[in-house]
Each structure stands twice: as C-alpha cells, then as structure tokens.
C-alpha cells in the first residue's frame, strides 16, 4: 500500500468532495461537532459580554464563530442536514453526572472552552477525509481558541485578584535604606494598594536590597494582611523572584509576557505598559494580569515624545476589562479628567512622592477614587 493510499487523495474513495455514501459518517460527525462548537462559542462569547463586559474578547469570540462557519461553507447546509439523524444517535442517551453539575459561572465557561476545542479537533480530523484543503483552516482556529481561553481565564482571575487595587504608587530607592523604609511606611499607612520599586540609578545589589527591605516592611506592617499593598518590581523579573515580589512590570521594549513567565512562573502578577489600543489588546491576548495606560499627561519623572492622552484611556475603558491603570502626570487637579475618561485605577509617582505630605496626598487620591468606585467598572 502506498503512502497516497494512507494519507493522500487516493484514500478518499468518494472523489467528490465528501458527497459519496462512505462520507456520510464523517459529515454526520462534522455536523454534530459544528453545532457543538458554535454553541460553546456562544457560551464564552456571552460570558465575555455579560460577565466580563469585555468588548475586545467578545469581538474575538464572535469573529472566531463566523470564521468557523466560513471555513465550512464549502460543505453545503443541505449535505450536513442530510447526513444528520438525531433519532438514531446513540450518544443522546449517554451522559455523566459531571455534565449536569456546574459550581460557578467560571466552571460553565471552562467546560465550554473544552467542548469547543474538542469539537474543533473532530471537525479538523474529519475534514482530512472529506475536504482536506479545509482542515488546516480549522486547525488554526483551534489554536486561536487556546489563546482566547487563556486571555479569558486570566482576565477573570486578574479582576478578582486586583478587585480592590485602585491606587498604584511608583517610588525610587531614595538616598538611603532608612529614607526608603520611611517612605514605604508612609505609603502603607496611607493605604495605597500597590507599590512599585523603580530605580535605574541603583546597582543590582542595592536595588535587590531595597526590594527585600520593601518586602520586609510590608510583611511586618501592622495593617491587616488583606490591606497590605502588593510589591511590584519594575523591569527586573530576576530581582522580582529573589525579593519575593507579588508582581513584575515591563514596558514595550522589555521582555515579553511569555519570556517573563519563563522566569517568574505562572503565579506572579505581570503588568505591561501600553501606549496604544493595539498594544492593550495584545497584552490581553499575551496573558498580562494588568496594563498601565499612558502617558496621560506630561510627567516630571519620565519623558515621552508623544502622549496618547485621555483618548487612549477612553478607548481602553470602552473595550477592555483587564485591570488597567492610567499613568503619566496624574495629579489631584487633573484626576477628574481621568475619571471622566472611564478609569478608576491610577498609577502615580511625583503626584504623591514629591509632595510635602505623602500620606495626606495619597489619602486625597484614595478619597477621590472611592467616590466613583462602583459607578464606573474601570
């Protein structure tokens, strides 16, 4: 028997694009699994739409559903309907106890993703018999579901993990460990939710010592564990691991989310700076836990040639549910503009650390953010 007999066109005895009698079981399998796949896609699409309120992921799921139907349009609806015989389907009477149990909405969605991927694999394999040229299209769609399932799962998990995180403060290492510890204590006392250590002046060993000091100050704080801020390291995933940070933040020019994960593992928060809506969308698909969006206004701590500004914030607020922090030159004076753009999470540096009373400044920011919390989902 030749290789063509096993894998090539000669292996299809129909020779008529799947229209012969021998192709009926394959068409029947394709029909059943197309129904299964589109039903599962509707479940995850509606979850992204109604539970996550994420326009970006909703659109991706909807487009995937239409792409699947388009990939199979060469198989006529009449042929698939003719192959269908639900009354004789022995599988309709088979079920398991697990199929009738769903503990949460997330459980429903996880089951839908699995059902979708399994259905696509069956369609892909059957097409190799009835229409081999279409099989690779479905294979590509199946791979896309893995990316979307990851993005959906991480978005939901990140929203839960960062549900109370509104005020994110960036600080340098100060002139000494004593001065740095005092600032950390002040920020904790003020009630900030995330502290990022960012300092390009310090040598690696000094920077690591500052990070470890911040870890100790946070852990030994008199605040209740649930009210202690998260520690995020800027740019350096290696130091984030060594200092037991809660998260790592990278820019567009630094390591990718995937590369960072190779260093920090699956549990650490990974944040990404974004400056355009396309970058924000990609960060979601890459599996970031949160995004920084900006620069919103000119900043004294970092220089930029261009400013995406408030319009970028409005774009993100309109379509992305992943936790997003507006950043760049935000002060108490211009904060209302940020809130009006749809954001209730901000990242600040000089707006707090360059004031005479850091505690009072932080608390003023928190009070303003608390006033709109619950009104705006961002």
Folded structure, characterized:
With 378 residues, this protein is α/β, with parallel strands linked by helices. The protein folds into 2 domains: 3-159; 164-372, TIM Barrel (Alpha-Beta Barrel), CATH 3.20.20.70. 54% of the residues lie in helices and 9% in strands. The protein is built from 15 helices and 8 strands. The protein has helices at 3-7, 24-51, 55-71, 77-83, 105-130, 132-161, 177-190, 204-219, 237-242, 257-264, 277-286, 309-319, 335-340, 350-353, 358-372; strands at residues 167-171, 194-197, 230-234, 247-250, 269-274, 290-293, 324-327, 346-348. An 8-stranded parallel β-barrel has the order 1-2-3-4-5-6-7-8, surrounded by 5 helices. Helix 2 (24-51) runs antiparallel to helix 5 and helix 3 (55-71) packs antiparallel against helix 6.
Question: What's this model, at a glance?
Answer:
The protein has 378 residues and is of the alpha/beta class.
Major pleated sheet: 8 strands, parallel, barrel
Q: Catalogue the unreliable spans.
A: 1-18
Largest beta sheet: what is the strand line-up? 1-2-3-4-5-6-7-8
Average pLDDT over all residues: 89
The rounded distance between the terminal residues' Cα atoms is: 63 Å
Beta-strand content estimate:
5-15%
